[in-house]
Write a structure and sequence with these properties.
By secondary structure, this protein is an all-alpha fold. The chain has helices at about 5-10, 25-35, 45-85, 100-120. Helix content is about 65%, strand content about 0%. About 0% of the residues are buried.
Length: about 130
């Protein structure tokens, strides 16, 4: 008789013919007897929710670490590139736009107005 047949007979409380009580038979009986008993403790109703919440929280922290590392190395590469190329930052092109201050102010106010309309009227619940 192989192990699977022995397990099946012990699990279904069938008599085992011609087999001496070996260590395997005793161990199988103890295991299946223990499995039939109900546990002496109960889990709280929100146990699964707590497990999912902790798993999601650990994932979020890991994502932020990778995001931070990526931004750090991006800035490091940017600085090293500027150093190697000798780049000089010049805002001289803005001198030609000095006459358009009113247009720039209108653009900022118009975009702010559109944002306010979107938050208050179009999508108030978001």
């Amino acid at each position: 008789m192989n192990d699977e047949e022995l397990q099946h007979k012990i699990e279904s409380d069938m008599p085992i013919d011609g087999i001496i009580e070996t260590d395997d038979v005793v161990a199988y009986r103890q295991v299946f007897t223990a499995l039939k008993k109900q546990p002496h403790f109960t889990l709280p109703d929100n146990f699964a929710d707590k497990v999912v919440q902790k798993a999601a929280m650990k994932k979020d922290v890991k994502d932020y670490v990778w995001l931070g590392a990526g931004i750090f190395f991006l800035l490091l590469a940017f600085g090293y590139t500027i150093y190697l190329t000798g780049f000089n930052f010049d805002l001289g092109f803005l001198k030609h736009m000095a006459g358009y201050k009113g247009l720039f102010l209108f653009g900022v106010m118009f975009i702010t107005l559109l944002h306010w309309i979107d938050k208050r009227i179009i999508r108030p619940n978001h």
